[in-house]
Amino acid sequence: MGFARLGSGRAATKQGTGWRLAGASERETPRDLISAIGAVFQEPAFLTYAAEMLEVGAKLPKLTLRDADERAVSLASLHAERPLAAIFLRHFG
Amino acid sequence: MQRHLAEFEKRGANVVAIGQGTGAEAARIARMLRVTYACYGDPQHDAYRAFELGRTGLFGLTLQPFLSDPAASLRNLTQADMRAAASPRSDVFRLGGALVADRAGKIRFLHRSRSTTDVPATDALLAALDRLG
Fold it and tell me: CA B92, B18, B3 angle in degrees (round to 5)?
């Protein structure tokens, strides 16, 4: 689940001229090492996850969003007539 | 996605963005990003939680993006909405994502970003729409 997916807690060890993360099948790049170090500082995201993760093939959950006038818009209404392509925005960084 | 909007529309997709905060805040972000498709607010983060989008930490928000992908990181910073980020309804640690669903509401593509610079390739979303037939 989330914990493993995010790569948290993987130990990095020096091997030859490169670094290898525990459980990794190939030599990892410095970028991976940076990610691993970053994972140490990550908050435990898995705590916020539901018991069963939504995956491809699952039905969209029933959700209500808000339009610019704060009117309720159901997620179901967004795919009722056409396929839906949605992106989740970040505000910063 | 805005740059490839015509490709999405050619495939008959309803392109939307979901942002943290109120609907008005989402609309403001849309104007900032100059996107012409609909943006909806998710003030309680119900959608972000339902799709189990991850959260990063302080390191993942600051130093890691600059070290791993400086160009994307700088681009993200230039597009940052500091006002929205400072809102109590905003979670700056929450990561983004993308999905494609068919008309029946079945998820056909789902990407959960693993870092602030991890953005799904537009081609992957378009390919998912193409597979709908």
Answer: 100
